[in-house]
Amino acid sequence: MTITRSRLSLVSFLLVSLLLHAPLAAAAEPPKLNAADTAWMLTSSVLVLFMTLPGLALFYAGLVRMKNVLSVLMQCFAITCVVTLAWVFVAYSIAFGDGGAANAWYGGFAKSFMSGVDFKAIKGTIPETVFAMFQLTFAIITPALVLGAYAERVKFSGMLLFSLLWLIFVYCPIAHWVWGDGWLGKMNILDYAGGTVVHLNAGMAALVCALVLGKRRGFPETPMPPHNLAMTVTGACMLWVGWFGFNAGSALAADDRAGMAMIVTHIGAATAAFAWMVCEWVRYGKPSVLGAVTGMVAGLGTITPASGFVGPMGALVIGAAAGVLCFVATNFMKRALKVDDSLDVFPVHGVGGALGTTLTGVFAAAYLGGVGFPEKMTMGDQVLVQVTGVLAVAVWSGVVTWILLKVTDAVVGMRVQPEEEHEGLDTVLHNEKGYNL
């Protein structure tokens, strides 16, 4: 009997010890690669790069005049190359490095030249190489969005230098603030896929570029209609499809959050496009193709920060608000303020990004179909955090963009000569023509 009791006591002791130490053992396990998550993120990376090349390139190229179509295509292509090189050298480290004592503001230089990003490095459940590639596609499209504000009037060399500096001093710090364990992330800002980092950031930079660089020759007296709307619609369709990687891919996993992000992205885009069409129909008597695709882009930009946090009904409201408010903002900029933001980057992406980021603080509420707020946060608390993020990003992007424009202009110059602008950038800057008619 004594032996039996001793054995039972020993077994009980071992079982209790195993139960007590099991969580510690699990916590100590290294992260494991998930094949499904990896496959989805590889696909998402391709989709987001597809948004810039060829999506945004064709969308923008169709909107400019015939004499500048190649210059816009070339700018998108060149930005892809320059940003990729900078990402490898230092930009990835600034955005997603540890940062040390200054971690709240920037990621430091420890990951420069992709140090530590090797075959065995894992980020969550995917290889860090895949994470770095996915984030690179975001870094590519953001300065590419900005070029829509100064299309048809800047030097190629000025565009390259400005885009490089803007990536390092504007995009990367803001990406770190929100997604790299920076100060806005620690405040629990809700920005799922780039309402502040991408759209508001690019929109504010675009507004400053338009104001600093001035109007195109003849604006607004001379009509400057798109030269090829079929090209623009083709690019817009590619953007719509690619955006599923942009938003649903930001889950960094093939899970329920990615599924919801995908469906609300589609709902937001469709609702905004329809709302913009209705606004045009009422205001001008006819809905336009250009208005429909512009409304779609506005809806996509506006739903982006909310995509992983809101439900379908929230997406309907956000999409409708985007279609109406971005339509009003675009007309106000062009007709009342006469600001020559060539391809309407600020009223579409800037206004949309700010609107979507703010409304995320409302429609993320669980009783409105969202995922709920972080612990101990009320709707009022969350909206205050969202507005804080909007203001901080707008100020940083605006002020630093102004400084970088002045620096670039002093070094290589930004605007082409009036006679060169009149002749067209395709011939002047690249000695080529988009069409041989």
Structural class: mainly alpha
CATH architecture: Orthogonal Bundle
Helix-residue proportion: 55-70%
Number of strands: 2
Which sequence of strands runs across the widest sheet?
A: 1-2
Could you state the oligomeric state of the chains shown?
single chain
Helix/strand order: HHHEEHHHHHHHHHHHH
Supply Rg: 24 Å
Largest sheet: 2 strands, antiparallel
What top-tier CATH class fits best?
A: Mainly Alpha
Look at the structure and name the CATH superfamily. Ammonium transporter AmtB like domains
Low-pLDDT sequence parts: 13-27
* Secondary structure tally, helices: 15
Strand coverage percent: under 5%
Give the termini distance in whole angstroms: 103 Å
Overall average residue pLDDT: 93
Can you characterise this structure?
- By secondary structure, the chain is mainly alpha-helical.
- The chain has a single domain (54-93, 125-430), classed as Ammonium transporter fold (Orthogonal Bundle).
- It contains 15 helices and two strands.
- It has helices spanning 2-28, 35-63, 69-96, 128-146, 156-179, 183-186, 195-213, 229-248, 256-284, 289-303, 312-337, 345-363, 379-411, 418-423, 425-430; strands at 122-123, 126-127.
- The protein has a two-stranded antiparallel ribbon.
- A hairpin with a 2-residue loop joins strand 1 (122-123) and strand 2.
- Helix 3 (69-96) runs parallel beside helix 5 (156-179), helix 9 (256-284) runs antiparallel to helix 10 (289-303) and helix 10 packs across helix 12.
- Residues 13-27 have low confidence and may be disordered.
